[in-house]
Amino acid sequence: MLDLATSRYYWPRMRQDIVSHVRICQTCQLYKGQSQNTRLYTPLPIPERPWDEVSMDFVSGFPTAARGIDSVFVVVDRFSKMAHFIPCRKTSDAAHLNFSSAYHPQSDGQTEVVNRSLGNLLRCLAGEQPKQWDLALAQAEFAYNSTVNRSTNKSPFEIVYGFPIPHYLDRHSLPSFERTSFDATTWIENLKNLHEIIHNKLQVTSEKYKASADDHRRDLSFSEGDLVLEAVGKVILTHFLKGAGMHVDMPKQYLPLLGQPIALYSFYIFSELCEVKEIIVVCDPFYKDVFQDTCEKFLVDVKFALPGKERQDSVFSGLQEVDESSQLVCIHDSARPLVSPEDVKKVLKDGWLNGAAVLGVPVKATIKEANDNLFVVKTLDRKTLWEIQTPQVMKPDLLRAGFEFVNREDVEVTDDVSIVEHLKHPVYITEGSYTNIKVTTPDDLLLAERIINMKET
């Protein structure tokens, strides 16, 4: 949206005005979105020209439109990033279906990115008339293909056709004289040069992404007969009621963070971990669509539970959805969108080894204890103090026993591992990251944006 506007208009504080508008736009807040492995990342070869290689996928789960359409067949050119959105029905006529490999986004990652953009566009264009979303499909395709791509710094239209396509925002009057095209040979030469530039840019982008991805990977290989321990974990994502610190009329977890609801950041992280088999989202039913729209893109089961009055009530509600086969329960506050996959894997491992573990960071500030009159009683030794974060990981049986105790004794706790602490069970602290902040105020939201932007650059 910003690139589209700045290419055609200018006014003072233009960027700030557009960002401010998107922040308070109800449609944008509700619908718009921005997603330890073994082996190193393996990128696909870069194509030489447009439409040499394509990726394809189906997006389903849309409301059935008047014409009986309920799905979209998405075809993406891997070179130009141009996409075609073809309306279709979910019923398959094929005798055999071939699927891409699980947890290998390099096999179809380009289409996954486009799918998310398509969902955002259709929800915005057809938000008031959801059963007429198919009528907005052509407009969504035009909007996507006319948007500048981050990898190429050009729109798909410009890469394929050699020049920017006139947009509906362009209101120039037609010239009175007859316009002739420039020499065809020159046009073809310019197009070849453009394709060579795009190929080189894609090559550089792919190498940068591989280097970044491999920073957090180990080149492990397994042989036949090797024993591998698989931790089957269930994640409870907690969503609490409206936060007074944000001064808004909606739960803070659904406020946009760089265009994506805060809650979806951690949801995507857990969805992509092979250690996680199921996510239980504790939320108001009104916000279920935020997660259901993305469920089909991951190989993780998603359940929903109703929130309670207090934090421990919400966790207890989510625990009721955890079956007996689960080996670990991982509880995470969705107001912490910046937890890293590496920290999640560490605390899962420590929880498995110790029965209970929690992410935390050493306290940096000086902490003083005060009396009721706000006079200092003593200065605490910060060498032994830790700021506790989430996720917090426990064995399910241990957590159930802890809930039996605190419910029987009518004990109120402020975090999840406190429940098992009442059983005198030791809780291991896994050192996390200071960037795993909890977003509770507008200042926290700005800080989270800065952290994300710094990571991307």
From TrEMBL:
InterPro entries cross-referenced by the UniProt entry: Integrase_H2C2 (IPR041588), IspD (IPR001228), IspD/TarI (IPR034683), IspD/TarI_cytidylyltransf_bact (IPR050088), ISPD_synthase_CS (IPR018294), Nucleotide-diphossugar_trans (IPR029044), RNaseH-like_sf (IPR012337), RNaseH_sf (IPR036397)
MF annotations from Gene Ontology: 2-C-methyl-D-erythritol 4-phosphate cytidylyltransferase activity; nucleic acid binding
Known pathway: Isoprenoid biosynthesis; isopentenyl diphosphate biosynthesis via DXP pathway; isopentenyl diphosphate from 1-deoxy-D-xylulose 5-phosphate: step 2/6
Enzyme nomenclature, EC number: 2.7.7.60
Annotated ranges, domain Integrase zinc-binding: 1-32
Record keywords: Isoprene biosynthesis, Nucleotidyltransferase, Transferase
Top-tier EC class: transferase
GO biological process, any: isoprenoid biosynthetic process
Pfam families linked: Integrase_H2C2 (PF17921), IspD (PF01128)
Recorded family membership: Belongs to the IspD/TarI cytidylyltransferase family. IspD subfamily.
UniProt protein name: 2-C-methyl-D-erythritol 4-phosphate cytidylyltransferase, chloroplastic
Species for this entry: Platanthera zijinensis
